[in-house]
Each structure stands twice: as C-alpha cells, then as structure tokens.
C-alpha cells in the first residue's frame, strides 16, 4: 500500500449509495469519473467531504439493475462497509416492465430497507418521478404512484428521510434531462444533489445549474428530434428489453470501497 492509499481512510462517517442508473449518475456525463458518469450522489459526497473531512464515500449502484438485483447484490456489500448514511433508490426498471407485481416487490424493498436500518445508519429513500409529461413512460405513471405510496409508508414506519422526486416540479422541465429523455442530465443531477443536501440539513455550496434558454422548437423541429431520438435511444432500449440484455452488463460499481477522492 502506498502512502497516498494509506491516507484514504479509515473514516468516521461513511456514505454508501446503492441503486441503479439514477444513483450511478448516468446522464451526468463526465469522462474524468468512473463509468464516465458523475451524478448527484458523487456531488453530494464531494460536498459532504468538503464540509467534514471525516467522510468516506462508496457508490455501489449499477445501471439497468432491477430492484431484486439491487437488494441481492448491493445490500450486503453496503452493510459490510458499516455505513453511517445510506441512500437507496431502486424499482424504476421494474415499473417499466410489461408486467410487475408491485405489492410483492415492495415487500422485498421493505425487508431490504430494514437491513439497512439495522446497521444504525441514517437511511434516505426516494419517491419515483412523475412521468405525466414523459411520452415513453407516461403509461407507467399509475404504477409509480403506487410505488411511491409504499415508499412513503416505509419511510414513515422507520422514521427515515425522504427525497420527494415526484414533487420536484423544476425537473418537469426537459432541459434538466439528458438527450436520451430517460435520465437526468448534468443540470438535473445538480438539482437533485442540492435537494438531497437540503434533506440532510447539510451546507450546500453547489452552484445552481445553468440551462439553455433556447426558444421552443417549431413543430417540424420537434418531429425531427423525435425521429432522431427514436432511432438512437428508443429502439436500442426496446431491443435490450426484448433480448434480455442490460445496460449494466459488464459494468462495475464506480466506488466499491470507501474513498474521499471524488471528483
């Protein structure tokens, strides 16, 4: 072990983020970050470390994972890291499947949350996004509402912190989303980081994001954009669903071990 590695820990406070692409940071493109993605969790970790150098950070989230995969593959590694703070968001990839038993799924979610609570860590949960204005996912809005009711009940039962993604109306503006229309963009992840810090009651020195103030596209421009989006993003997404391929195949966690080096 090098001297530099020896300085990276141990940590008095330990933030572990688990979940899917939302927590991995997909859409917040950053070639200098692992997996070419930064994301809200990295931004929160960087601010926590700036506030207090005793923080360490691990991010176990992997894009494309369904809820049972997140629970089965990430809960135990998270517990092994002896977290003092855990964030969990998973289930979005289940909600968009052709069929899903949400009641059964959320019983498993509750059991996973209970394992995290038993560590003594502060646990933060998230509601799902309101997809009323999302062309591809609008039909899943009712499922997300049911999912959210389960999450709210679980958060209340265990007295946990809750980030209410559903009511973050600023993120109904598509300028905060990536061009794939499925993941938050840089601006959206920045807004989410600031909201998580607010829920945690932590000092927030992250600058408000800037978004393009471009005029609304004309109808022909929107049609052209939709055609390009369908070819480059929708069709590959459908193909993965039909073939059982996940965007997270062969992807490793960004920060599997605790670190204070988050850029």
TrEMBL record:
Tell me a Gene Ontology molecular-function term this record carries: hydrolase activity
Q: What CDD domains does this protein map onto?
A: SGNH_hydrolase_like_1
Tell me the Pfam families matching this sequence.
Lipase_GDSL_2
Is Hydrolase found in the keyword set?
A: yes
Matching entries from SUPFAM superfamilies are given as: SGNH hydrolase (SSF52266)
Is Amino-acid biosynthesis among the key words of this record? no
Q: Which residues form the SGNH hydrolase-type esterase domain?
A: 17-190
Q: Which residues span the membrane? A: none
Name the record gives this protein: SGNH/GDSL hydrolase family protein
């Amino acid at each position: 072990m090098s001297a530099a590695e020896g300085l990276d820990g141990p940590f008095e406070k330990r933030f572990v983020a688990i979940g899917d692409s939302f927590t991995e940071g997909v859409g917040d493109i950053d070639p200098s970050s692992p997996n070419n993605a930064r994301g809200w969790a990295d931004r929160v970790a960087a601010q926590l470390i700036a506030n207090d150098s005793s923080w360490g950070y691990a991010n176990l989230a992997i894009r494309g994972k369904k809820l049972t995969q997140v629970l089965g593959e990430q809960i135990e590694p998270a517990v092994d890291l002896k977290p003092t703070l855990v964030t969990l968001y998973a289930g979005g990839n289940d909600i968009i499947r052709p069929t899903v038993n949400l009641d059964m799924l959320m019983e498993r979610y509750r059991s996973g949350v209970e394992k995290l609570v038993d560590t003594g860590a502060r646990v933060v949960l998230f509601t799902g996004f309101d997809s009323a204005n999302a062309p591809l996912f609008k039909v899943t809005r009712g499922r997300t509402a049911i999912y959210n009711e389960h999450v709210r009940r679980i958060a209340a039962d265990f007295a946990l912190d809750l980030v209410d993604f559903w009511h973050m109306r600023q993120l109904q503006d598509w300028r905060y989303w990536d061009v794939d229309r499925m993941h938050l963009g840089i601006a959206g992840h920045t807004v989410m980081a600031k909201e998580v810090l607010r829920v945690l009651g932590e000092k927030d020195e992250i600058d408000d994001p800037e978004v393009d103030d471009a005029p609304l596209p004309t109808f022909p421009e929107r049609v052209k954009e939709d055609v390009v989006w369908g070819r480059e993003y929708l069709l590959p997404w459908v193909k993965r669903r039909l073939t059982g391929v996940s965007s997270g195949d062969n992807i490793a966690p960004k920060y599997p071990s605790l670190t204070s080096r988050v850029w």
